[in-house]
Amino acid sequence: MLLGNKNLHFFHLLNTRTMSNTDKTDTITAFFNFVDKDKDGFVTKTEIEEAMAVDLNNDNTISENEKVIAGQQWLNTNFSLQDLDKDSKLTLQELLSFNNAL
To answer: What is the pTM of this model?
Structure first.
């Protein structure tokens, strides 16, 4: 499955500051379920990179470089902040806890 720009809307939705608590929880849960491709209950940096991948040169393939370019800024800024137990994986609870603190 080719991932691309259409999938970035999940990441834009994570700006939950103006949402009600119910909407915030629903949005974060949908994001988590979307990104957790192997359904192991954790989101890894690799899963986030793949979900954020963008076909930057419109060649209908997404290279490793395109995955890294698209996901690197978000990962560098947010992943370690949200990984509360520092195990290099995010749980739904970690995402919810972090976003509720904002």
So the answer is: 0.64
